[in-house]
């Protein structure tokens, strides 16, 4: 059950970006499981990928093809094509070749992406047979269809959109993402696809995407598991009539802020849809010496099964949070300077339970669906935020039954 709002937004059409979907029957035959994005000629594309050493075959192929000038994305759900060795690489390239044949392009112009079960051969024949239908379905309005087709254990389709004005002319950014489990930031632990009609050079788009990912997808975690297939792609069709975006200018600042907002909204949607989640937990760590230190403390709390299960039980067991801060690996912590809050309730002060803390006040906060843990380290001025969710019985059930 998702936590909080999960409505799919109205997504404007983007000039120079077409989307088609089809059902290949990879794992099921009820919904579409193939997505094709087509970019206009001379569009630019940027991407960041998982740092898992066992990266999936499509990640390897996509990295190589990104150095060309890609025009198509090919995404399948239901099969990760990971842990499949040389055969997996051949299968990923074969799917690229199949899409190239259906569109009249080159296989090296296709970026492949897969999500689903690890260790099973990719059903190339099924995917190849479905590609002509996906290509014939290409249209600018199919954002909702694409968001649904890439889902695996997700309970709702995830989308975000922003429009900004550059010199009075609109630039639009649309994004979709999938992810609910195997979510732990180490690049971006999910699949996300973002498109814009802005005009900017590929290196600038790459820089902008990397910065946005670092402050969004790299600040979320559901279960501490980094996927083999993570990828986040940004496409820029260049079809807007707005001025070209150049580095360090006002237009770049506005565009970067909009891209960051889209990424953060998608990242939060992933946590809200965490497998079996019943609570959204926002962890704010401030007064740290630097950003790295703040993130380390935040992630240590977010990854603690004891903290996450206490939140599921609505149990104000504040000692588990205190313990997580203490084992986060920060040298020379001055315990008397640390304060920890549940929303507006101080639970830790001067090295122990706050004098004015009551169990009733803690319980009142823990009964809420969305809760903020705030940690004042008393060491500096850095501040970072990490998003996570609780661990419930359903998380175990969903993952125990994942292959059945």
Itemize the secondary structure elements and their pairings:
Layout: E1 17-22, E2 34-39, E3 44-49, H1 57-66, E4 72-79, H2 85-103, E5 110-117, H3 124-136, H4 143-149, E6 158-166, E7 169-178, E8 191-196, H5 202-214, E9 231-236, H6 250-272, E10 280-288, H7 291-303, H8 305-312, H9 318-326, E11 339-342, E12 345-349, E13 352-353, H10 359-366, E14 370-376, E15 382-389, H11 393-400
Parallel strand pairs: 4-5, 8-9, 10-14
Antiparallel strand pairs: 1-2, 2-4, 3-9, 6-7, 7-8, 10-15, 11-12, 11-14, 12-13
Helix pairs in contact: 1-2, 2-3, 5-6
Textual characterization of the structure:
With 404 residues, this protein is of the alpha+beta class. The protein has 2 domains: 17-272, L-amino peptidase D-ALA esterase/amidase; 280-400, Ubiquitin-like (UB roll) (Roll). It is 32% helix and 25% strand. The protein contains 11 helices and 15 strands. The chain has helices at residues 57-66, 85-103, 124-136, 143-149, 202-214, 250-272, 291-303, 305-312, 318-326, 359-366, 393-400, and strands at 17-22, 34-39, 44-49, 72-79, 110-117, 158-166, 169-178, 191-196, 231-236, 280-288, 339-342, 345-349, 352-353, 370-376, 382-389. The protein is globular.
């Amino acid at each position: 059950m998702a936590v909080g709002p999960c409505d799919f937004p109205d997504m404007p059409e983007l000039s120079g970006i077409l989307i088609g979907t089809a059902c290949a029957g990879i794992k099921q035959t009820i919904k579409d499981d193939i997505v094709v994005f087509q970019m206009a000629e001379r569009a630019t594309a940027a991407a960041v990928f998982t740092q898992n050493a066992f990266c999936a075959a499509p990640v390897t192929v996509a990295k190589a093809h990104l150095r060309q000038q890609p025009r198509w994305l090919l995404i399948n759900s239901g099969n990760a094509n990971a842990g499949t060795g040389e055969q997996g690489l051949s299968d990923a390239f074969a799917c690229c070749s199949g899409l190239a044949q259906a569109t009249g392009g080159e296989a090296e112009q296709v970026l492949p992406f897969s999500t689903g079960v690890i260790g099973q051969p990719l059903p190339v024949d099924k995917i190849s047979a479905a590609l002509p239908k996906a290509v014939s379905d290409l249209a600018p309005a199919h954002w909702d269809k694409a968001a649904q087709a890439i889902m695996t254990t997700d309970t709702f389709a995830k989308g975000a959109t922003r429009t900004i004005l550059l010199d009075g002319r609109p630039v639009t950014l649309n994004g979709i993402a999938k992810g609910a489990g195997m979510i732990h930031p180490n690049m971006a632990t999910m699949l996300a696809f973002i498109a814009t009609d802005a005009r900017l050079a590929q290196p600038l788009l790459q820089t902008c995407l990397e910065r946005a990912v670092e402050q969004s997808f790299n600040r979320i975690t559901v279960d501490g598991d980094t996927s083999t297939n993570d990828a986040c792609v940004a496409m820029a069709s260049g079809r807007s009539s707005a001025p070209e975006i150049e580095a360090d200018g006002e237009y770049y600042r506005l565009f970067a802020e909009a891209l960051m907002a889209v990424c953060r909204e998608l990242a939060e949607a992933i946590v809200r849809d965490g497998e079996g989640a019943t609570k959204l937990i926002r962890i704010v760590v401030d007064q740290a010496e630097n950003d790295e230190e703040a993130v380390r403390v935040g992630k240590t709390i977010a990854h603690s099964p004891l903290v996450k299960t206490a939140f599921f039980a609505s149990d104000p067991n504040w000692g588990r949070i205190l313990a997580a801060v203490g084992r986060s690996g920060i040298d020379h912590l001055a315990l008397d300077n640390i304060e920890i809050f549940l929303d507006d309730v101080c639970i830790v002060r001067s090295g122990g339970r706050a004098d004015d803390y009551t169990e009733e006040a803690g319980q009142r906060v823990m009964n809420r669906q969305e809760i903020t843990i705030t940690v004042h380290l008393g060491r500096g001025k850095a501040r970072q935020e990490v998003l996570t969710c609780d661990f419930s019985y359903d998380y175990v059930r969903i993952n125990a039954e994942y292959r059945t």
